[in-house]
Specification:
Bound molecules: tryptophan
Structural class: mainly alpha
Helix content: 55-70%
Order of helices and strands: EHEHHEHHHHHEHEHHHHH
Radius of gyration: 21 Å
Distance between the termini: 30 Å
Strand order of the largest sheet: 1-2-3
Number of strands: 5
Length: about 325
């Protein structure tokens, strides 16, 4: 049997270049080799956006189309709506017995996100989303999970849960493994260490050419470089980091020119936004294709979710049997 990939995106808005670098590229690259499941994580979206049902609904389509537009082939990859897979909800409940509240409270990603969302009083659902994510990954016994490095604590947590489950009830569930991107995490052009939907510093896969140009133009460069004749330090410049991630061939050369004041920030930014728009052009084209076929996209999600439910039902039979709660 072919090995499985499962990964997912919260449906809290459109996907951006950080997702592209962190996970989407790997999904596209591996879809021929692995049976691929893409989870439209609407339950996880509710943990922070429970008061925005319209946004979540719209984002289910947006995120599906983002995945298709970067080149996931609907013939190969299965799109799954998380809230409609009952095995995920059931597994979350069973797993919740195997995780301590303290482990969740000390999860570094939970801590960072709690700060980011301004929570000083965490909801039970938000605190517990890593448990639900462990259920996402294991309902289909995924082997490999392409994710950004911010998801590592959740992967560790998932493995701990699975090991504990297997120790207690017998070998039932596969231990999942992450697949990290070779490219380092994409910082925000504003200098924030992460590009994020909620941080307001993202370049979206769906941004048009001019929006990309404007965003790159406003990026943080070496603030010590005031006149064009000043020598620059690419280590202090966000544009340089992006050149490294998206324009690797020219990166060394550009850095050298910057250090020698042979290229100014305006010209350097132009190189970058031209490159980004070149990368985004075929993505925009596929987006238009799918945006004109929304009903077909809906059907892909419905069919994919049905398939996920069949797999989930099999898993739950094994799980309940192992836990001796099957009658
Ligand atoms: N937490 C992930 C993110 O914020 C999204 C996600 C939900 C996910 N379920 C998943 C990732 C399962 C991998 C596997 O990007």
């Amino acid at each position: 049997m072919r090995k499985r990939i499962l990964t997912g995106d919260r449906t809290t808005g459109r996907l951006h270049l950080g997702h592209y670098i962190g996970s989407l590229q790997n999904r596209v690259r591996l879809q021929d080799e692995y049976e691929t499941f893409i989870l439209l994580a609407d339950v996880q979206a509710l943990t922070t956006h429970f008061d925005k049902p319209e946004l979540i609904n719209e984002s289910i389509y947006d995120v599906a189309i983002d995945n298709l537009s970067v080149g996931l082939d609907p013939e190969k990859a299965t799109l799954v709506q998380q809230s409609q897979v009952s095995a995920i909800a059931e597994l979350t409940v069973f797993y919740s017995m195997l995780v301590s509240v303290n482990a969740l409270r000390h999860n570094p990603t939970i801590k960072t996100e709690a700060k980011q969302y301004g929570y000083d009083d965490l909801s039970y659902g938000f605190l517990g989303y890593p448990v639900s994510q462990a259920a996402d990954i294991t309902f289909c016994n995924a082997d490999l999970v392409p994710v950004g490095d911010d998801q590592l604590p959740h992967m560790e947590q998932a493995r701990k849960i699975v090991r504990r489950f297997n120790d207690l009830y017998g070998e039932t569930i596969k231990i999942p493994k992450e697949l990290l991107s070779k490219t380092p995490r994409l910082a925000g052009l504003d200098g924030n260490s992460k590009m994020g939907k909620s941080l307001g510093n993202a370049i979206y896969l769906s941004d048009d050419e001019n929006t990309v140009i404007d965003k790159v133009k406003s990026a943080l460069t070496d603030t010590h470089r005031i006149a064009i004749s000043d020598k620059g330090n690419p280590d202090l410049c966000m544009v340089s980091q992006y050149q490294k991630s998206f324009n690797a061939e020219e990166y060394d050369n550009i850095c050298e020119m910057c250090r020698a004041a042979d290229i100014g920030c305006v010209a350097c930014k132009k190189v970058l936004y031209t490159k980004l728009n070149e990368i985004l052009a075929p993505i925009r084209e596929r987006r238009t294709f799918y945006e004109n076929r929304k009903e077909a996209v809906r059907e892909m999600i419905v069919t994919g979710t049905m398939k996920a439910n069949e797999i989930g039902a099999e898993t739950m039979q094994k799980v309940k049997h192992a836990m001796k709660i099957a009658l």
